[in-house]
Amino acid sequence: MNAKNSKKRSRTDWKRVDALRDSDIDLSDSPELGSDFFANAIFWPGPKRQITLRLDPDVLKFFRKQGRGYQTAINAVLRKYMEAQVRKA
User: Fold this and answer.
1) CA 17, 18, 19, 23 torsion: positive or negative?
2) For residue 25, which of 8, 19, 57, 89 sits 20 to 30 Å off, Cα-Cα?
3) Range with the lowest mean pLDDT among 17-21, 29-33, 63-67, 75-79?
4) What does the alpha-carbon distance between residue 80 and residue 88 come to, in Å, rounded to a whole number?
């Protein structure tokens, strides 16, 4: 974060932070990430693309009733379906 992307002035002592060595940082509350974590990690697909998609009225109504973020929910459902199909193949 810097002055260009924050309205409030940071109260962090950045010079002190910059002077820290890796060995000075307490990581006791951060678990070690093993290979199982990375095996289940989600690959970021990149920026979303805007398209036109035709949905049945009842499907659209269902997702819109879920409230804000319904398009994200539709994307998540489609992603799970896609992943299941890829695993089958």
Assistant:
1) positive
2) 8
3) 29-33
4) 12
